[in-house]
């Protein structure tokens, strides 16, 4: 296992900015909004030549037990307790506040190695950087995450504080990126917590708890590696507010675009809404593999009727995902969970499928014989050859004279034929027509 380096501190001291700077890319949401980060984010990075697992956390702010603030604090504290090294960040401009001193004392009691960092130490913050000595955590390192100052020295200091590298997995086998998307309060975070077997993500009855798109590594029982991506709930654009909610929606859509398989979480107790279908259309437009999960299944009374109604609505409204797996489950009780990852793996296999050119052209010959292309403007569309240009998603090119004139109805006929003949359920299929001769005709 890689050593875990956890960035901690009170809210709005620049933890997520520092996390992004050390990671070398923008992974965590950043804004002048206290408490923007709610769930911890982890990523593998290399610091001064040393591979580590870097973790961001929510601000360590006090709150009543059971409240949202209290649950955020408990989650962040749990991450800190698993750390091999804690990077404790304060705001150099604000100086050492009473809450900083309380947290420093609490960190010392945890028995974890801690190093102090004074962020925002550029400009007028430079004078307050030395105040970090008051924390009693040794010499503070002054940095500016926003401007990149002191980052190389911090990376070297982190690497030096970690135990010598043993036989660790420096480069993990490529993980399958699985994003869970849906409307607010559809049970996305609860699902991921159930898979992980622990409460790693903040959950609760309040809609919109998740703000950032959080990626967590997970190894299934069969050894398959996953990168589980929890996302903020996606509401209709007209109902998305400004500030944190806009950033959260943007992060969710970006995560969807970077995923390989997307699980669309539909709250089965509320039925399927137009916004669920809109998210499904976005999945198809981006060419992602998909599964649909009906969450909170334990709370659904007339289950057969609900599942049938949702499947019919999906079939009518999402022809691009025809045949997509619809899986009822309950992350709360575990019902249906054993079928979830196999369904994801099957969707990924279909999405990656390559079909031999010979098989495709035998199929095309039969498809043309059953239903010849139409006559357009007095001339028949003449289709001669098909090949799979790429997978992820399956993308095909049909060549022939006047091929580009093929009407939409005939294109749908061919797409449906490809889906049924080559077992391509639930995945977007790209079909392009080109007005050109068979590129292999000369070699035949």
Report what the structure shows.
The protein is of the alpha/beta class and 444 residues long. The protein folds into 3 domains: 4-161, P-loop containing nucleotide triphosphate hydrolases (Rossmann fold, 3-Layer(aba) Sandwich), CATH 3.40.50.300; 176-351, Rossmann fold (3-Layer(aba) Sandwich), CATH 3.40.50; 357-443, K homology (KH) domain (GMP Synthetase, Chain A, domain 3). The protein is 31% helix and 22% strand. It has 11 helices and 17 strands. The chain has helices spanning 15-23, 68-81, 98-110, 151-161, 188-196, 244-258, 274-285, 303-317, 340-351, 357-370, 408-421; strands at 4-8, 41-47, 50-56, 85-91, 114-119, 141-142, 176-182, 214-219, 225-230, 261-267, 289-295, 326-328, 375-376, 379-380, 382-390, 395-401, 430-435. The strands form 4 sheets. Strands 2-3-1-4-5-6 form a 6-stranded mixed beta sheet, sandwiched between helices. Strands 8-9-7-10-11-12 form a 6-stranded mixed beta sheet, sandwiched between helices. It is elongated and about 85 Å long. It starts with a strand and ends in a 9-residue tail after the last strand. 42% of the residues are buried. Mean pLDDT is 84; it is low at 29-36, 166-173 and 238-244.
Shape: elongated
Could you describe the largest sheet, including whether it forms a barrel?
6 strands, mixed
Strand order of the largest sheet: 2-3-1-4-5-6
Helix and strand run: EHEEHEHEEHEHEEHEHEHEHHEEEEHE
Could you give me the name of the CATH homologous superfamily of the largest domain?
A: P-loop containing nucleotide triphosphate hydrolases
Distance between the termini: 55 Å
Gyration radius (Cα, Å) is: 26 Å
The CATH class of the largest domain is identified as Alpha Beta
Approximately what portion of the residues adopt beta-strand conformation? 15-25%
Mean pLDDT: 84
CATH topology heading of the largest domain: Rossmann fold
Fraction of residues in H or I helices = 25-40%
- Please tally the β strands and state the result: 17
How would you classify the helix and strand content by structural class?
Answer: alpha/beta
Annotated CATH architecture of the largest domain: 3-Layer(aba) Sandwich
Query: What's the tally of helices?
Result: 11
């Amino acid at each position: 296992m890689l050593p875990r380096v956890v960035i901690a501190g009170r809210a709005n001291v620049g933890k997520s900015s520092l996390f992004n700077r050390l990671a070398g890319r923008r992974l965590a949401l950043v804004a002048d909004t206290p408490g923007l980060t709610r769930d911890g984010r982890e990523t593998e990075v290399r610091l001064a030549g040393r591979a580590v697992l870097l973790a961001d956390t929510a601000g360590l702010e006090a709150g009543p037990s059971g409240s949202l603030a209290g649950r955020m604090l408990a989650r962040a504290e749990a991450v800190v307790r698993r750390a091999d090294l804690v990077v404790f960040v304060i705001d150099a401009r604000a100086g050492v506040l009473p809450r900083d001193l309380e947290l420093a004392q609490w960190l010392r009691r945890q028995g974890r190695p801690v190093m102090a960092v004074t962020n925002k130490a550029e400009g007028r913050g430079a004078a307050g950087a030395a105040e970090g000595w008051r924390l009693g955590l040794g010499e503070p390192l002054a940095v500016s995450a926003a401007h990149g100052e002191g980052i190389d020295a911090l990376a070297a200091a982190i690497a030096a504080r970690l135990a010598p590298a043993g036989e660790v997995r420096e480069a993990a086998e490529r993980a399958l990126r699985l994003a869970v998307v849906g409307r607010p309060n559809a049970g996305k975070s609860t699902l991921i917590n159930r898979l992980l077997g622990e409460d790693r993500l903040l959950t609760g009855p309040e809609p919109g708890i998740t703000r950032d798109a959080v990626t967590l590594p997970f190894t299934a029982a069969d050894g398959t590696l996953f990168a589980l991506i929890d996302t903020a709930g996606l509401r209709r654009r007209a109902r998305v507010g400004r500030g944190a909610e806009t950033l959260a929606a943007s992060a969710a859509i970006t995560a969807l675009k970077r995923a390989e398989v997307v699980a669309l979480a539909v709250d089965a107790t509320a039925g399927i809404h137009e916004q669920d279908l809109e998210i499904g259309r976005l999945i198809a437009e981006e060419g992602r593999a998909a599964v649909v999960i009906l969450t909170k299944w334990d709370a659904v009374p007339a289950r057969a009727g609900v599942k049938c109604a949702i499947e019919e609505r999906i079939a009518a409204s999402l022809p691009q995902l025809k045949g997509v797996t619809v899986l009822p489950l309950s992350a709360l009780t575990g019902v249906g969970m054993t079928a979830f990852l196999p369904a994801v793996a099957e969707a990924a296999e279909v999405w990656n499928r390559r079909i031999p050119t010979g098989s495709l052209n035998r199929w095309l010959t039969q498809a043309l014989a059953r239903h010849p292309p139409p006559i357009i403007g007095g001339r028949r569309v003449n289709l001669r050859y098909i090949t799979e240009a790429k997978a992820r998603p399956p993308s095909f090119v049909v060549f022939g004279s006047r091929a580009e004139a093929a009407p939409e109805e005939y294109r749908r006929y061919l797409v449906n034929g490809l889906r049924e003949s080559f077992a391509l359920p639930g995945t977007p299929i790209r079909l392009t027509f080109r007005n050109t001769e068979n590129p292999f005709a000369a070699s035949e």
